[in-house]
Amino acid sequence: FWLKAFPGRCPSAAVLTIPRTRRCPLTLRMGRPMVSSSRVVLWALARAFVGAAVLTLDVFGCSGAPVPPPEERLGTAADGGERVAPPCPACAGPIDAAGAAGVEQPLGLTHDSLHAATAAPGEPQTAGRDFGLASGAPASDAGGAWEEILAASNHSCFEACGFIGGFCLAAAHEGAAPELQNATGELCAARAAKGAKCTCSFAPVGLPTLRDKIDSPKTPTSSIFALLKRAPFLMTHDAATGYDHDLETPFVRTQRISLVDQLNCGARAFDLRLVVAGDDFEDIRFHHVSIVDEGPLKQVAVGWWSKEQTLKSTVPELVGWAQAHPHELVLISVSHCYQRQRRLIADRWVSMNCTDARLVQAFEDLGVRFETSCRWLDRIPLIWAKERAMMRGGGRMLAIAGESDCVVSNYDPSVTSLARLRPYVETTMRHGPRSGHPFQVQSFLQQHGPLVPTDPRVNFDVLSWLGSSSVYRGVNFLEINHVCAYGGFISKMLGASVSDDDNQKCRTSCKEACNEGGVCRPVAKPSGSLDSPVAASK
Predict the structure, then answer these.
(1) What does the pLDDT read at residue 243?
(2) How far apart (Å, rounded) are the C-alpha atoms in residues 353 and 359?
(3) Which residue from 22, 52, 253, 418 has the highest number of Cβ atoms inside 10 Å of its Cβ?
């Protein structure tokens, strides 16, 4: 193995040669700045990815300090070396003859970076829960766009705003009706019997340091070849239930919007559960069911399966989104696979292996590769996974064998309250990264009643933990319910790129779901720039 960098300047390219045979070496060319520190671990899988080897090399780079004005870049450096104008815009430090300055630049290997910024030692582990700005808070703290909506009867403005990914502005409710004002003054959290008009900001409100962290460069990992199992993705739990609009099955709905809309809201991994109609692998549908295993109803499903949406009709839309977002990697974690056999009284559901060649072929026919090797998923560097996920028409999407196969679910049925969620996350994050496998952190409340818990406070807390602590340091699949509630902010904290256009599409679909769900209603007045939310409410 050998690495050739360009001394004396930022390495804009490098060549790594892996000797497969004496006559036919395998050459890997990298055209991006490829170092995150002066010491880099290069993972090289030789012999067509059969064996693994680790090579640690010193490489040269640039400092990654803020870029000074051109006239300040030249002259003599503090250490006596010659300061030259760096050829890459991120370089600003002195570069000696060997070009051995350290690099601390984000690499952009996961989405636009590899991990969210984390809290320094000693910082508080939780931000608490502030449902909005204090009534005297300056309007400038809210920032960004705002919108007025109506909270439905017996729903709070925090719930209504949170449902569409917004933050309630308490400052806008100084003139609120008496029924909105409770003993503690939590105007946003109060519920009115007749509903209320709410002002929602789409910038982080109530989390004073979060906005800066969302927009700041993320902390790079220590290795250019960070493993896929160490890369952070926002995963949507039971993702396909967003297609469930059946009034008879509200107890299965963990999402409220389509898969494409979930991508717009920041999801980069799906928890997808599949059922095949008998032996017809042209008719593969989605489900969220429980199987009755006792008595004469053995292997009968109770729950929901899609009536209109099939794998064949849905995946092309996802492929189109991925092609329009070529730098984003989308993973489909396939699990809970069944064949539904028709019977006169009740259909019989028979469990099947999600790595069945016929299922794999169904994805391949749609242009999406399906990786069934757990060994590959355990060892593959993220940058190579992105190459593996490259589709013929562009875009990166990869199906993988999920729960019960290659991904550790970390399911805990006892997490049924907010008080139990944080301890679960802390415990899972202690052992999850050490498992040696891709792993999920189920950051939602487990269902223990007739309805799936989709309270926006859960995602609000997850977002606050990302912004104020290091509890999610090293997370792989951060799995949530109801991605409409702050999914875009959470995904940005994990390093994804969520554009303004995607945010707007997400908000539009979430508002429709909010109206359909009976949590909020639109207000005729159009949204605008938030110059004075207090004045706007009056």
Answers:
(1) 92
(2) 9
(3) 253
